[in-house]
Design goal:
heterodimer, A: about 600 residues, Cytochrome C Oxidase, Chain A, two-stranded antiparallel ribbon, B: about 190 residues, mainly alpha, Four Helix Bundle (Hemerythrin (Met), subunit A), elongated
Chain lengths: ~600, ~190
């Protein structure tokens, strides 16, 4: 314990690697208790695993919720008595009630967007990869890093408890628009459920900010000698932009929540006006604007999309290059396009609000800015494809998921061009077309990035490999399943089928999709079961997986593979290695790969 | 606990100071969000115009003076004038508390003039004033607590501590909340 603290001070105080000489002898006699090693750990690697496994818990729960509401959508006329056994009054007679359906949809969205794809994705990989790939012993502030996880954990506990309150969890959609979110009388879920939702989200914002501050400070201040910004692996650039987006946009969401809390609890009229509530009469509030909340929400909400997507993009770039045995194509263009995406992320929020009565002229400006995102996105896709082009490709499971990401990003991104048009949006808004678009481009694509990252860095995390065969089964069922689930939804959306409806079988215009909905639900269940297979592989391999024999199994250039197979707290037993070149010298001058720590030879030019 | 000077030998900024700067950027975004919401809301119907309580001028004065005293405290610390340093950080903390008290007095003044900040009879123009000012007060309170911690540490610590990092970080933050209030004060006076 005592040597642990010494180490923490060293890492948190000094941005220079040569301040660590005194520490060299300490590595072998760490005395860690179970609590300090596995629970209140300040080691960035352990915190990353905590984020990952907590994220997995939420992914299973959120995914299970989607299976439950897909049961309702696919089989609206059937009853499932076992549903009453697990959901009680929320599934009277084996049929999910409308309230439960909306609660499931809302919680599924909130949990997947924030707990899985924000905390689970960037929490895991920013924590794990930033110190390892920039060459630092730990984060700028390991203590804040630990707090970041525990705020996330408590946010999760609060969200989980909202599922068990008598009036049920919040059920007004993951965006929590007022008046549904501001008025307790609006629905059962708007009572205690909403209070807990907002407390949970406030804690989550604090967690994200603590994490983001740390990631930025570590990338900018704690790089090892020779690691200039343009020698950083693209994963680090992506995680850096992600953190900047989070630090600048989450506070705005927070201000939106504060005003919401005042409207809910202190009778103010920021969002509420003299709405007429059935049975209660008109509200005493005057002059509030519900649209104001939407502006504040989407000012976070849109950057949030890139907070989810950028880490996946970064990891995919790294994995594609490593497994094509080729340098990444257009390294600077990759950084430039991520920068462009980060800037544009703040300038497009109103495309979520085209049909809220937004001034059409203003709308046309947001159309232009939105469509501009196609430019950096296309640059990235081009560079990924040219990295693969004539590469010496190794189809590891990580590589399969990375290629799958590119495929999903292309198919989901193209429909974004449709939705970015305010004119087309008149027809397409709030239909299944939107569901299909964002699930493919943001949800499934980022999940693929996350899977790619897990398969690729699992050996570094646990010193063992995941089972390859199960990995390929996982990949093929998931990618085929994802397309089978979401592709048909485009047609439903084009036909005008609105999202968030409880039962389509009573609508003459959407009855025709009954069979299709049943098909989608069936595939969703199969894909969900396959994720359980992946989890089994994950937890089995932690203890029984094939052991790692060499420190650098993928023949990779980046610094994390220069650490021992099971690195201790502090990552490198001796001095932190110095960096002499960029991370992508693959297949150069007849060498398969040249690690970043190899000095530049006399016959080479410096990168 | 921290034993390294603020600046690294190669001129790089200390990571903890850097974290503070990013955090201040984050806080700025929160207030930018709120003040933009204020501007949007002001352009819509049903916006109450009223005059700010006079007491806010006194609180502004108090917080400006406190910025001067914390700067003197930092100088005293660096000159190892520990007695003067302790007096000055106490004065700064008290001025911070005075600021908070004056803000609350300002709210009472508004209530007395029958301009409620919250509740169903409130107008969102005053509610905005209330929410934004209270959030700023919480940030000042955070600074006061940080001052108290280093104040207690200055007495309790058995080991002589020559690092000026904690007081440097707190004084930067203190100036920041000072500027933040000046911005908000001008904003509220300008856009009523």
């Amino acid at each position: 314990m005592s040597s642990e603290i010494v180490l923490d001070i060293h890492t948190s105080v000094s941005g220079l690697h040569d301040a660590h000489h005194s520490h060299d002898g300490h590595e072998h006699h760490h005395h860690e208790t179970f609590i300090s090693k596995y629970v209140f750990s300040m080691d960035h690697k352990m915190i990353a695993k905590q984020f990952l496994i907590t994220g997995m818990f939420w992914a299973v729960l959120g995914g299970l919720m989607s299976v439950l509401f897909r049961l309702q959508l696919g089989y609206p006329d059937s009853t499932f008595p076992w549903l009453e056994d697990i959901l009680g009054k929320w599934a009277k007679g084996g049929h999910i009630t409308p309230e439960a359906y909306y609660a499931l949809v809302t919680t599924h969205g909130t949990v997947l967007v924030f707990f899985v794809l924000t905390a689970g994705l960037s929490g895991t990989f920013a924590n794990f990869l930033i110190p390892l790939q920039v060459g630092a012993r730990d984060m700028a502030s390991p203590f804040m890093n630990m707090l970041s996880f525990w705020f996330f954990f408590i946010a999760g506990i609060v969200m989980l408890s909202s599922i068990f309150v008598e009036t049920g969890p919040f059920s007004g959609g993951w965006t929590a628009y007022p008046p549904l979110s501001a008025l307790g009388d609006a629905s059962p879920g708007s009572k205690t459920g909403m209070d807990l939702w907002i407390v949970s989200m406030a804690l989550f914002v604090v967690s994200s900010l603590l994490g983001g501050l740390n990631y930025i400070a570590t990338v900018l201040n704690m790089r090892t000698k020779g690691m200039s910004m343009t020698r950083l692996p693209l994963t680090i650039w992506a995680l850096f932009f992600t953190a900047v987006l989070g630090v600048l946009s989450f506070p705005v969401l927070f201000s939106g929540f504060i005003l919401l809390i005042f409207d809910r609890n202190f009778g103010t009229s920021f969002y509420l006006s003299d709405i007429f509530v059935n049975g209660a009469g008109a509200l005493p509030n005057e002059g509030g604007s519900a649209i104001l909340y939407q502006h504040l929400f989407w000012f976070l909400g849109h950057p949030e999309v890139y907070i989810i997507l950028l880490p996946a993009m970064g990891m995919v770039s790294e994995i594609l290059s490593t497994n094509s045995r080729k340098p990444i194509f257009g390294y600077m263009a990759m950084i430039g396009s991520m920068f462009a995406i980060a800037i544009l992320a703040f300038l497009v929020w109103a495309h979520h609000m085209f049909v809220t009565g937004l001034n059409p002229f203003l709308g046309s400006i947001f159309v232009l800015l939105t469509l501009l995102i196609a430019v950096p996105s296309a640059i990235k896709v081009f560079n990924w494809l040219t990295t693969l082009w004539r590469g010496n490709i190794r189809f590891t499971p990580a590589m399969m998921f990375a290629i799958g990401f590119v495929s999903l990003f292309i198919s989901g991104g193209l429909t974004g061009i449709w939705l970015g048009n305010s004119a087309l949006d008149i027809h397409l808004h709030d239909t299944y077309f939107v569901i299909a678009h964002f699930h493919i481009v943001m949800g499934v694509a980022s999940m693929f990035g996350m899977f790619a990252g897990i398969y690729h860095w699992f050996p570094k995390m646990y010193g063992r490999f995941l089972n390859n065969t199960l990995g390929y089964v996982h990949f093929w069922i998931t990618i085929i399943g994802a397309y089978l689930i979401f592709w048909p939804m485009h047609y439903e959306g084009l036909a005008g089928m609105p999202r968030r409806y409880y039962d389509y079988s009573i609508w003459e215009s959407f009855k025709q999709f009954g069979d299709l909905n049943r098909f989608i639900s069936t595939v969703a269940m199969i894909v969900f079961a396959t994720q359980i297979l992946f989890l089994a592989n994950f937890f089995y391999s932690i203890f029984k997986g094939r052991k790692l024999r060499s420190a650098n199994p993928w023949g990779s250039n980046t610094l994390e593979w220069t650490t021992p197979i099971r690195p201790g707290h502090g990552n490198w037993p001796g001095e932190i290695p110095e960096v002499y070149r960029w991370a992508y010298d693959y297949g150069k001058d007849g060498h398969d790969f040249i690690s970043q720590t190899t000095p530049v030879g006399a016959d080479e030019s410096v990168h | 606990m921290v034993t390294v000077n603020g600046k690294e030998s190669d001129g790089r900024i200390h990571p903890q100071k850097f974290v503070l700067w990013v955090a201040m950027g984050s806080i700025v975004m929160m207030f930018a969000g709120l003040t933009s919401a204020y501007i949007v809301k002001k352009s819509q119907a049903n916006w109450l115009e009223y005059s700010l309580p006079l007491i806010f001028w006194y609180s502004t004065l108090a917080i400006i003076i406190s910025s001067v005293t914390i700067n003197m405290a930092l100088k005293a610390f660096k000159a190892r004038e520990m007695r003067q340093y302790r007096t000055l950080i106490s004065v700064t903390a008290l001025l911070g508390l005075l600021f908070l008290g004056l803000q609350i007095a300002g709210f009472t003044n508004l209530e007395a003039r029958n301009i409620p900040l919250f509740g169903s009879k409130s107008n969102s123009s005053t509610s905005f004033l209330g929410v934004i000012t209270i959030l700023h007060m919480l940030h000042v309170l955070g600074g006061v607590i940080a001052l108290l911690i280093i104040f207690i540490r200055a007495y309790l610590s058995k080991v002589k501590n020559y690092s000026s990092l904690p007081i440097e970080i707190i004084s930067t933050y203190w100036h920041f909340v000072d500027f933040l209030w000046i911005y908000l004060f001008i904003f509220f006076n300008w856009l009523r």
